[in-house]
Structure formats: C-alpha cells, structure tokens
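Same chain as my last thread, 299 residues:
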Amino acid sequence: MTASPPPSGSTPGSGAPRTCYRHTDRETGVSCTRCGKPICPDCMVEASVGFQCPSCVSEGNRKVRSARTTFGGKVVDKPYVTWTILVMMVGGFVLQLGTSDPIGQARLSPLTELFSMWGFGVVEYGEWYRLITGAFLHAGVFHLLFNGYAMFILGPQLERWLGHGRFLALWFLGALAGSVLTLLATPAQGSVGASGAIFALFGAVFVIGRRLRLDTRMIMVLLALNLGITFLVPNISWTAHIGGLVGGLLIGAVFAYLPGRDAGAGRRTMVHALLLAAFAVLLVVLTLVAPRLWMTFLV
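reply #2:
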C-alpha cells in the first residue's frame, strides 16, 4: 500500500521538516501560540506571549470593537471630510473663474447661472441640485476665504468629535437647510456660498461645546459678529445663514443629547440616522409645498 505524502507543516517526529503554512518552501521551528500552525519569520506577528499567525491576528481584530467618540462616531485620525470639502470649494471657485466673461464680470459666469441657489429654478424647473451645488460656488475671493477659513477652524474639531459620517451629514443638511429657507423666503433671489453649512457648524459647535462643558464664549462672540454682518452688510443671504444656524443647532442637539449617555453605539447610530432622515424629509416637504407658502405669505 502506498502512503500519502506528509502534509505541509507536519509535526516533529513525522520524519518531514516543518514548513510555514503560508510559505510551504520555508522550514520553521516556530508555531502560532493560538492555533499551533507553523509560521516563518515573515508571518510572525509578535504577541504578548510568543508569536501569532496573520490569520489569528485578523480574527482577533474582527472581534475587537472599534473605538468610538463620545457621540457615537468612529475615532478619526485625520479630518478627511473637512479637507475634501475645502478642496471642492476651491475647485468650484476655480471653475467659476474658468467660465467667467473674458471681457469682464458684468454678468455671472455660465457655471454660476446653472448651479447657484435659485428658488424658482428648484421649484418651477425641477432643478433640485441647486439646493446643494450653490454651496460649492462663491461670489469672490474674499467670500471664499471667509467661508474656507471658518471651515478650516471649525471642521477638524467637529469631525473628531462626531466622526466622518455624522460630520458630513451635519455639513450637508446645514447647507440644505439654508437653501430651503432661501427658497421659501426669497425665491427670486440667486445666491452662492457655503455659508449655510458654515453657520450649521457654528450652531453645532455651540451645542456640543455646552454638552462637553467647554467655554463657549468665543463661539458666542463669533456668532454675534457674523449675525451682525448678516443683517448690516448688503447683498448677503440672511436666509442661508439663519437656516443653516437653526439646522446646526437642531442637529447638534441630536448628536449631543440623544438617545442618552447610557445608550450603546448601535442604538445611538440608529437614533441619529432616523432623526437626521426625518429632518431631511421635512426639508423636502417644505420644498414641495413652497408654491403654496409663497401664495400665502409673499403675495
């Protein structure tokens, strides 16, 4: 009777050299302390006792819960969402310049005309994209620098508090809230800028800072100054600022206080997702009923 050849990684005394279970051409005398498989130097992962194989390390990592922030988001190493939005804001402005009138700026660039926030365009022509695309366009260099600097200051800290997903939802819904109030109150007015989202960040920083018992006096001063500029300087969309601020305060309160300190990460995420979805639905409903509201309050 013919005997079958010994398997790779056979045990001592079997008459065959022990080889790594992943690299069968390499002999070894070291075994994984968890599963006992032979491992070569390239496969050794140092453990508290001895070495483990890559398979056992991966299995152990899957069972370890990822670290969470106080508000339920995954711990953030770098604020990638903030950086991405900043790049998109700058990119949008560069595209505006590239499509501007070569003779001068007596008229809006075609890009601005197509993608700025314009209430009648949203409702009458079904151009819903204007509710968010206008946030990536700006009226000039100083407008971009102001919003970009505020994003650079507030964004990284908020993203580390909330995690990537919650921070992106805050920015997006804040911009949307500002656009919806603009649509309801000044439908014939065109506007551009990320101010709605920026004011949402201000509102969320204030609420979350209070929840963490931080000194929020500086945020209050900045808010007061920006609100003063909103109503004292002409040609500023006060609706985008107020809509974004209200949205940021509400969303910040959801993140900071719901569903309670003792809730697990899974339940917290579910509650936050449901409430954010409800807020988004409210904004959609307000957009759909806008013509009736115009007839009631603006005529």
